Amino acid sequence: METTNDFHSIVVHNTPLMDVRAPVEFEKGAFPGAVNLPLMTDEERHLVGICYKEKGSEEAVKLGHQLVQGEVRESRVRAWTKQLELHPDSLLYCFRGGLRSQISQGWIKEATGREIPRLEGGYKAFRNYLMEELAPERQTAVPVILGGCTGSGKTVLLNRYAWSVDLEGLARHRGSAFGKRIQPQPSTIDFENALAYALIRHRHQGHAHLLLEDEGQHIGRCYLPKPLYEHFLTGNLVVLDVPLEKRVENILGEYVVLSQEEHILQQGQESGMALWRGYIESSIDRARKRLGGDRHKRIKEAFLSACALQDTTGSSAGHSRWIRILLEEYYDPMYNYQLENTRRKVVFRGGWGEVQAYLDGFGK
């Protein structure tokens, strides 16, 4: 049966992947764009595993065939063939590229006459390849770090450039204590796999520089591998200066208006608003120790007042007040202190247009 270990090509060409592992394995970690079409369910895999421990490999294989036969087997094959109709260039894999993927290959060939390649070494080999690609010594582009106070619109500017990688986008998080999105964050393994994909493609495109947003090692519950994070810290800083009024407007638009719309779209008007308000309020409470008692009280009172005003008038404009306090009295002093004490070199600083013009020069 045909195999491939051309992992670089898979990443660069975004080759569709069929993951025939059990759902519980897939949930722990998979590859970008992979579809879980398991040979065995979690329960079937569990029973086969017990049999393997008690009676050995041969009996475990027999049990597997007993559990997945007849209509059960046909339903699995139909799922695979449907995926192949949609994506004829798909590859398949199991954990180590062994028995499960070989069985799947054989059944697909019987049903369609086609031989679908499987990943040599399976998930484990491909995962090892991606982790090696996250090593600092594999990075050829020079990091350029885009900094600026909270609400400056750094992510919007960053995504204008093909030589950038959006870490917050990969982590599905806005990067602050209030940055959680309605869509769950990926597992750390999925985040690492997606980051490796992004860096491999960036290098394949031949960019001399890598534009990143100024982030901590943790982005929500996702975190950058320490050696790679330390490599990113070697990059020079480009600081985006945006007036407070504009930053309040940006935060209001993204963290309030857009976030409320996302919650309502997924949960409905009443439940969505309740979920959003609960999240923001709990975020304020979690930051109480860092904010200090008086500041925490003022921010929370301003937030609750804005919610009451929105209930009465339908306007979200009142949320500007607590956002302003949070930026002016907490986030801005913290960022300015970090900037004053950083060992990194600030190579450019300016407004939106000036920074954009500076970054445009890297693409020439």
UniProtKB/TrEMBL annotation:
SMART domains with a match to the protein in the record: RHOD (SM00450)
Residue span(s) of domain Rhodanese: 11-135
UniProt keyword list: Selenium
Keyword Acyltransferase: no
MF-aspect GO terms: tRNA 2-selenouridine synthase activity
Pfam families in alphabetical order: AAA_SelU, Rhodanese
GO biological process, one term: tRNA wobble uridine modification
Key word Hydrolase present: no
Transmembrane stretches, start-end: none
Database matches in NCBIfam families: PRK11784.1-2 (NF008750), PRK11784.1-3 (NF008751), tRNA_sel_U_synt (TIGR03167)
Record's protein name: tRNA 2-selenouridine(34) synthase MnmH
Species for this entry: Anaerotalea alkaliphila
Encoding gene, per UniProt annotation: mnmH
